[in-house]
Amino acid sequence: MLVTGTAKAPPTPGSLPALLRRYENAGTPLTCVPVPRGLLNKGYEVTTTRGRFFLKQYVARDTADPGVIARQHRATRGLVGLGLPAAAPLPDSRGRTVARLGGHGYALFPWIEGRHREGTELTATQSRRLGTLLGMVHAGLARVQPPPPEDQRHHPSADPDRTYAQIDELLALVRGHRPRDAFDGLAEHRLLERRALLRRHAHRRPPDADGSASGWVHGDFHPLNLLYRGEEPAAIVDWDRLGVQPRAEEAVRAAAIFFVHPLDGRLDLPKIRSYARAYRSAAGVPVPELAAAVHRVWWERLNDFWMLQWRYQRRDPRSDPLFPPASALAVWWTAEYGAVIDAFTA
After folding, report:
1. DSSP state, 309?
2. What pLDDT is recorded for position 3?
């Protein structure tokens, strides 16, 4: 009997065996249990008579296009060919990596044992290896992907006037939220604080990103998308946001997630120094390019409220735990701007 979880709707007990029959060595399904993490698409741990697999169901509108999925799969298989730990899908008996069932796309992956590790757990040596890994991914994507289209190289900086309007809209929603709780109080405080910071630093808005600095990037490189086996990275997963961005900005964004202290929002600058040096060397990114990326990501953080938009506009609380450290980081980063630049570029 096939056992399924209830947190998310998996493929029906009748369709899952039919899906797995497309693969020569997948076996007969025994259990199908939802994997709870993931904000965009759905995932399931499938146990069969041949072992364990990860089954991905593409449901998010902006990632479910067949062409987008095919691009992700080509990139990951290319990176695996270069010896990088990119989780790549299994081909079926006809060489296809996407199956269409019930209007959704599915992909089957080997099950990878491992655990997630926050940057606060990493040693200086492991932080250096993390930077090297991301640099090699960027260099590898440049080899296995076509040149970035010109129309995808333009990345404007956030407009503070638009942010002020967004803050006003969110403040109205926060103040009207009932029953009011501690999160609402923190959200109101941070919105008012951020508005004051933006007014003080509006003259520091960076220019649009230089198109020559753009390249193919993972798009969402953070601790929940990297599995460790022991001391070493075992797999980079969840390539849904693969796209063209200023490559050094991904390195800065990743560091701001890996190396942020969850209680007060400060960054572990010694670890970032090790990470950034290794990244620059592996990716071939010059110091001025990384310095410009630090400034742009700092500005991005001052203008970004996606977690509050999820909670108050989409009524989706899944990102709530991310908000306290992320909102504190923007304030701390502004106060310690020079030290952060130095950590990334020295």
Report:
1. I
2. 47
Tokens of 149: 């289209």
Q: Are 342 and 295 in contact (CB under 8 A)?
A: no
pTM for the whole thing?
A: 0.92
Domains and CATH numbers, the chain: 3-110 (3.30.200.20), 119-229+243-345 (3.90.1200)
Residues in the chain: 346
Q: How far apart are CA 210 and CA 154, in angstroms?
A: 7
Residue 336, pLDDT > 50, answer: yes
pLDDT of residue 102: 79
* pLDDT tens sequence across 187-217: 999 999 999 999 999 999 999 887 889 999 9
**Of 110, 83, 111, 77, which is closest to residue 95 (Cα–Cα)?**
77
Q: What secondary structure does DSSP assign to 5-53, as a single string?
A: -SSS--S-TTHHHHHHTTSTT---EEEEEE----SSSEEEEEEETTEEE
